Amino acid sequence: xxxxxxxxxxxxSSEYSTLAFCDEISWADQRDYAVDIEALGFDxxxxxxxIMAGAGPTTxxxxxxxxxxxxxxxxxxxxxxxxxxxxHGPLLAKALAQLxxxxxxxxxxxxxxxxxxxxAEAFGYEWPSAPERLRRMEETxxxxxxxxxxxxxxxxxxxxxxxxxxxxxxxxxDPYPPIMIGGGGEQxxxxxxxxxxxxxxxxxxxxxxxxxxxxxREHCETYGTDYDAIExxxxxxxxxxxxxxxxxxxxxxxxxxRPENLDDDEFHLVGTPEQVAADIERYREAxxxxxxxxxxxxPDTTGPELFADEVMGQF
Length: 315
Prior knowledge:
Residues 1-253 form the Luciferase-like domain. Keywords: Flavoprotein, FMN, Monooxygenase, Oxidoreductase. It comes from Halolamina litorea. Its EC number is 1.-.-.-. There is one protein chain. The chain is of the alpha/beta class. It has a single domain, classed as Alpha-Beta Barrel (TIM Barrel). The protein is 39% helix and 18% strand. It has helices at residues 27-39, 61-71, 89-102, 117-122, 130-149, 189-196, 206-223, 244-253, 273-285, 302-310, and strands at 2-6, 44-47, 76-79, 82-83, 109-112, 153-156, 161-165, 179-182, 199-203, 231-240, 269-271, 290-295. Strands 1, 2, 3, 4, 5, 8, 9, 10, 11 and 12 form a ten-stranded parallel sheet that branches. The radius of gyration is 19 Å and the shape is globular.
């Protein structure tokens, strides 16, 4: 099992930011936090991909990852999840190959079709329907694989046309960095996952996720893909303290995570180390192998320290 930690890219009031004690994100906080997370023994650092997601500044994901590559040594670096709609796929392939070199082969690529329409339109991007965004994302994945392995690439798609494109320098990882597809759409996203991905990541209640896994298994059968070879990854926000009284005190600051305030298919890691470990075990038994957590007490490291000391060692 692997444990990665989200390094937030935005704060302040929004539907995305849920940080209890951080009103504004700075690069210095991100860098120092990432260094602390690595020292605690976590396996990876995940960076969300937004350009305007909180009331305060929002840091750009690709450049943040490049900075963290220079500030860390061993953790894998995980864009989770690049919004395909915001970037030109072939140029993204070049940037990611270079990032794999900068990080000395520590890149894990997360791809998605995006969900936050208002930020895209604020920056002048068009926002087509979800099926169209997903079809373009699939072409981006195909183009990335071609450029990561070829030096004279032709590609004739609906969204990209390449004519003798040189993908060198290719990534360090052979044949290329692992690819995660993020999202729960059963008709498109899980089909693309079965066809192209090394990892699937989603969030939410286990009962809902088990239904998604059944659909993924069916798509794998269609494509002749080994279902068991696809890593299953779960994202959750985390509130963890030594005692239930301390958990309640933290929930007073973020009541959004109380059970009565959660959507029916939503679930997060909230409780003492024993309670959090028990929840992780339920997901592990269902087949999840990677856990990506965002601690709501960022930039404080009390949560990550307790999680590393008393939870990770059980797995």
